[in-house]
Amino acid sequence: MTFIKYFLIALFISLPFNGFAGLQQSSDLPEKRPWGSGMTAYQAVDKDKNGDSFPTLTHTAELTLAQALTLALIRNPKLAAFSWEIRARKEMTQQAKLRPNPEIGIVVENILGEDESRGVQAADTTLQLSQLIELGGKRASRQLIANLERDLAGWDYETTRLDIIAKTSKAFFALLTTQERLQLGRENLKLAQEVFNTVKLRVEAGKASPLEESRAQVMVNKSRIALDKNKRELAASRYQLSSTWGASQPHFTKIADNRDKINEPQSLTSINKWLAQNPEISRQRTEIDLQKARLSLAKATGIPDMTVGGGIKRHEDNDNYTFLFGVSMALPVFDRNQGGIRAAQADVAVRESQHRNVEIELKTALSQSHEALQAAYSEVNSLQKQILPIAKETFESINYGYRQGQFEFLDVLDAQRTLIELKEQLINSLQEYHNQRINIEHLISQELALVN
Predict the structure, then answer these.
(1) Is the pLDDT of residue 18 over 80?
(2) 210-243 and 138-204 are packed helices; what angle lies between their axes, rounded to 10 degrees?
């Protein structure tokens, strides 16, 4: 009975400690970059009893950009996947804190022999406990690696969050562009119809050739075809925007129009200093730290661990007990993990080179987007303040003069075509401006309006 009691005590001591099972979970997401920081994003949470963690979409007449971004951040499946990845990495950091389990064993000697050793009469039963003791800071290195891998998942999450903001913003302004084109199409059709009515009256009065009426009718038909195309493009753009939050059907009628709000771009020097906020730069720094931690673990792996053990031996022939104690350690004669250390050192150099390359690529992309933004801003300004007012006034004058017989119908068509093309150019320039603004805000993770 005494032996059984010792055995049960040793078995209880050897059971794995489960003290981390009930730890309260905390957020391990990195600090949000300023761009879109005030918007709620998806986080890995347990689903409700219906298996749905997303609110039901209700129809809205007019959708704002802030509403679209919030929906995309809460419901986007890609962001949800990264959020669960962070949760998994967090659990791995808890696992990395645990020590190796102790080992228990029983050895029975001098049994099933002959004479005095027949059966178990002369048996010696040994109960042993042993514990691996890691040397060289291996457990601390594993903890650091697990923490850094969790941080990498966090930076991937933040990068994805900003990607979704950029993608949704571009889809939003693309839809605004199609709305503008649809409105322009309606105006063009109305204008073409007015010109046709004027030509028809002149033809009926014998002041113009029937050929001019045919040409005017062609312009009406072309405007009607363009309007139908704009309607189809608008429907496709609405579906494209809805897809950013995983919806198969648009739940809105139209979106709020604020495309004409443009600001003069700040200097590249004032914008450049915000590039350090880009999460990809932070991710590269974390990658370097991770490789250095792996280098430390590689060096620690070359240091042999120690196994400490002890036990109790019972001698059946005289009912006596003796105690055992032992220490074992591998001799680092041949394998000191030399290759693993050199490989880890090379990986550190690779990550440092990649960090420099990423910084160069981001600065180049920022310079290119800034140049394109300035060009789009200048073009929008020229069209709005100078070119379009003159083109509109010219068309109205020629159209009026045509009614009075002062101009040819070809002059009217040319002025009308020029006015339409300039209006389309303004729409395209506004879209280019907003696309480049979004590109820059994506790169610096900051609204341009807040840059000083």
Answers:
(1) no
(2) 160
Amino acid at 79: L
Q: Quick one: pLDDT at residue 69?
A: 92
The CATH architecture annotation of domain 67-99+134-302+337-450 reads Up-down Bundle (1.20)
Q: Give the span between the Cα atoms of 151 and 144, in whole angstroms.
A: 10
CA distance 251 to 61: 8
Q: Tell me the whole-structure pTM to 2 decimals.
A: 0.82
Mean pLDDT, range 280-295, rounded to an integer: 95
CA distances to 135, 301, 304 from 334, in Å? 18, 13, 12
Q: Which two tokens stand for residue 34?
A: 């300023």
Q: Mind giving me the DSSP string for 132-189?
A: EE--SSHHHHHHHHHHHHHHHHHHHHHHHHHHHHHHHHHHHHHHHHHHHHHHHHHHHH
Name every residue whose Cβ is closer than 8 Å to that of residue 154 and which is 6 or more positions away in sequence.
28, 29, 30, 86
| Residue 314 contacts residue 128 (beta carbons within 8 Å) | no
C-alpha 256, offset from chain centre: 26
Give me 171's structure tokens: 């889809």
**Average predicted confidence (pLDDT) for the chain:** 86
Q: Which residue has the tokens 């405007």?
A: 223
Strands 60-63 and 252-255: parallel
Pairing verdict, β 320-329 and 103-109 = unpaired
Residue 334: how many other CB atoms lie within 10 Å: 6
Give residue 36's pLDDT band: very low, low, confident or very high (50, 70, 90).
Answer: confident
Structure tokens of 98?
Answer: 């645990």
DSSP codes, 220-231: HHHHHHHHHHHH
CA distance to 109, 115, 123, 323, per residue, from 315 (Å): 10, 17, 6, 11
Contact (CB, 8 A) for 178 and 237: yes
